[in-house]
Automatic annotation (TrEMBL):
Keywords: ATP-binding, Kinase, Magnesium, Nucleotide-binding, Nucleus, Purine salvage, Transferase
Gene of this entry: LOC117568029
Enzyme class, spelled out: transferase
Catalytic activity: adenosine + ATP = AMP + ADP + H(+)
Bound cofactor: record note: Binds 3 Mg(2+) ions per subunit.
Organism: Drosophila albomicans
E.C. number(s) listed in UniProt: 2.7.1.20
Protein name: Adenosine kinase
Parts of the chain that traverse the membrane: none
GO biological process assignments: AMP salvage; purine nucleobase metabolic process; purine ribonucleoside salvage
Domain Carbohydrate kinase PfkB: 37-339
Amino acid sequence: MTSELQTGALVGCGNPLLDISATVPMDFLKKYEMNEDDAILAEERHMPIYRELVDNHRAEFLAGGSVQNSLRIAQWIIGKPNVAVFFGCVGQDDYASTLREKAREAGVDAHYQVSADTPTGTCAVLITGTHRSLCANLAAANKFTIDHLEQPANKALVENALYYYISGFFLTVSPPSIMRVAAAALAKQRPFLMNLSAPFISQFFMQPLLDVMPYVDIIFGNEAEAHAFATAQGWPEKEDLREIGKRLVALNKLNASRPRIAILTQGCDPVLLIQHDSIQEFEVTSLAAHEIVDTNGAGDAFVGGFLAQFVQGKSLDVCIRCGNYAAGHIIKNPGCTYSGAPQFVE
């Protein structure tokens, strides 16, 4: 099937970050006033952390950021390069060169906007035993503008795509770009998929999220993100994931011929597939404690596995099972990384 997939079938927009990952002693966390399993945005005191990892701690580099992670996983499973196109903003520096190289190695066709005066966004991944602490500096990722999508070559990539995926994180950067992509998807009657991404999106960026929701054909989220959305909306069923899913599906939608679908993950509990007339559960394979290396990136991997099958026209149950496979594989590896050839069986 993969040989028939067209180049550029899937377009994603998000925040490209270069993950700089290294094993460090506990003293290193203390030095930067961080705790194990932190996931924070960098403040001024954290800024030297990235150079120190590179200079002193045998750091590894990986193309990161939520959407780019999902597209890398999708490409790994699809096995044919350049099915996925990625848009985001980077700086004019060595880190951007590394990001380009890593994206290319993964088979992702990255078309970065370049900010001349802001460094490429980075995320420090600090490994202490089985714990991983994250410190993200968005930097140039914040500088993406709709102008980049208006360039003729990029505009053609958006127009020619068959599927579109955007993270809620991107709502903090360029809502006009999201609306442009959403409008292209609607005009061509092609699926537009989105992720709730994090509780803070619903808490602080609800209006741009509600603006784009009428275009969304498939919405992804985990239980914390779904609860945050329901709470921000004042829904009485904010503790009941099934009821939240039903309400998400029922929100106003522009293309009524394709009813919205909600796919809600809940860690090791079953994934919920919520459609306007049904709710299905998909079991998640339990892993032994010693198999779990790192749960960071599991959500990105789930979407990547889903997309790998979705763009091949597979049924939703196959897409979700592949999402669960991808998440389970990623959890056994450090960071959002994979090893070997994919072993997913339909």
